[in-house]
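Explain this fold:

***
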Amino acid sequence: MFSINKYLSSLNNQRKFARLLRSTLRFIYSLLEIATILLTVILLILGIIYIEDTIEQKTEWGKAFLQSLEDSEILGTIENISVVTALVIYLRWGKKKSHYQAWQVIDSAQGLQISYARIKALEELVKGGVCLKGLSLPKTNLDQVNLVDVDFKEANLQGAKLLEANLRGGKFELTQLQGAFLWGANLQDTFFLLTQLQKANLCSANLKNADLEGVNLLEANLQKANLEGAYILGNLQGVDLQEANLKGANLQGCYLKNANFQGANLKGVNLQEANLQGANFQDANLQDTNLQKVKGLNPLQIKSANNWQQAKYSREFYSQLNLPEK
């Protein structure tokens, strides 16, 4: 038990480190962007100075012209104003204008299931640090969209198609994803809170180290999904986890009535106090699985699994299985 908790703690720290690393990289990218602008301006000024020196050395009239500008201090003032203005325009007005145009593209695509322009517009908004809270795009095709570390709080993506979408590090608080098609989507290090995922298709999705609290995964399809190190708490009645990888996952207290774990890897999984009535464990790997204080479980369910002798049970269940208590 201690080793499993230690392993879960290690995975949680890895998830936090990954999020911190991505945030740091975005900050460094912003600094490099500003540094590039400043370097361009400096090179431009140096070019102007070079031209000034060339004119001054070549002709008498050039000397007189430059001397008059220096005396009036106009040149220095113009240079200062132009530099500041250029930076302000780029950092403020320029980005705001591009964001406005992106939202126009998204709004104009309302009602269209497929729009590649809308996908690109969303990606540009995210690159610019724009929040997507409350986004409403139900039944929309967003296949292979790249939206990393995005806040989808209260967004409506019900029935949306997100095949192989990159949503790593996203936050899905009170998000509607009922019936969404997330086949092969990258949802590593994501955070779900009170999210509606009824009948969602998450087949082959990557949910490694994901945090799913209070979610509704009623009859969701998670076949062959990667849930290694994930934390899940919620309604998983009838969920299909056939051949899924749940190594080291924490499903303590979950409602898993009629869940399908056939062929799933449940090594080191914490199912303590879960409701497993009618759950299918055929050919599942139960090595070091914690099945203490579970509800609705019977010996026939367990004995259809692999390595069931190596799982952890409550005292009375060891006797039902004719196993020595560990």
